[in-house]
Structures are given as structure tokens and as C-alpha cells.
Amino acid sequence: MKRGSYKWWLLAFLCAAYFLEQASRQVYSAPLPQIKLDFLQYGVTDTQFGLVGTVFMVVFGLAIVGSGLASDLFGRKRVLVLGVILYSLGALGSGFAHGIGCLLVFYGVVNAVGQCCIAPPCYSLMSQHHDVTTRSTAMSIFQGSLYVGIILSSLTAGYIAELGSGGWRWAFWAVGGLGLLAALWMAVGMRNDPQPEGTEEKATVREAFRALATKPTAILIAVAFGMFIYVSTGVRIWMTSYLNRTF
Prior knowledge:
By secondary structure, the chain is an all-alpha fold. The chain has helices at residues 3-29, 32-38, 46-74, 76-95, 100-115, 119-129, 135-161, 167-189, 205-213, 216-246. The chain has ten helices and no strands.
């Protein structure tokens, strides 16, 4: 595969990983009203369903820094493929849940750890293979796969969930199965590109955190982004239940 064409094939691999990452995230909230109906016999409350989302975001937020470090240490392709496998297994396991504990483990922990392994190696690989002439286009296409994943997975998961009792499980299994196929496709088709050699000495983790902590702009952006994630997660998880109850 020629270098000029590989960078677009690489973008296809990365978009598939990002698309399915968002699908595995949204597949919980879209059919949540149907999941709650199936779990009524176990006495699961709204607070416990919300706890699943809380555990997911806590694990994701804590683990994403480690995924960036792992990408630098063990290779970006390895971390990316492992991430796709993990969130796919998390989705598959969630489909077999018969209580809140299983959802906490598979969706809240396994799925979150897998999802945090996607963005850091993706942005690094795109930055390496796309120069200033194509980087913005590649970034916009990559970011677009996120929103397409949210929209299509929500629509599809909601439709499947309404096909009958337990239909929501097939939504999880479909996302998990597609994710494992995508991981195999990426493992075969992607190159294991090393990090580009730099002329400057690499900063340590401590120096990187110190640099961020001493920049007021970086702190304000982090706070603003945290608020954005807080609101968007709450809306995504509970919007379907609100619409179901209200209308």
C-alpha cells in the first residue's frame, strides 16, 4: 500500500474505531426505558442505573491518561486494537446482564477502559501521517464519525429494543460483534508505525503535568470541558427516559 493512499486507509480504520466507540457508549442510553422494564423484577432503581453512567465516566476519566502513556510505551496500534476489543467485549457482556452488577462491570468498567484507548493513539497517528495539507480535513472527518456514531447507534438501538422483550440485548450484541470484526480488520490492515524521532528531549510525565498546571488557560479549558462532559453525559443517558415519561 502506497504511503499516499495509506494515510486515507488509516483514517478509515480510525473512523471505524471511533464510530463504534460512540455506538458502544450510546447503546446503553437509547434503549434505557426497555432495559428498566426488564430489570423491574430485580428492584433496580433510577439511581442505580445512573450509577452505571457515573462509574463509566469515572473509570474513563482516570484511565485515559494511562492509555496515552501506554500508546507511547507499547505502540499506538496495539493500544488502539486492544481498546476496540475491550469495548466490544464490554458491550457483549452487557447484553447478558440480568442485574445492575453485570452492567457496572461490563459497561461501567470494561467498556470504559476500552473506550479511553481510542482517542490518544488516533490523534497521534493522524498527526503523523497527515501533514498541513490534509490534517484539518482528516480531523474533521474523524470528528464527524463521532456524531454519526451517536445518531445511528441511538436510532438503531432504540428500534431494536422496541422489537420485543429483551430486544435491547441484541443491540449490545450487534455493537460488540461489529467491534470485534473491526478489531480484526485493524489488526491485519494497520501498520505498527513507531513514534517519529524528534530532535528535542522528550518531557517526563511530571513535567507535562507541571506545564499544564501552570497555564491558567489550560486549567480553564479543562474545567469548561469537564462541565460540558457532565451535562452531555446526563442528557445522553436520561433524555430517552424523560421523553418516554413525558410524552
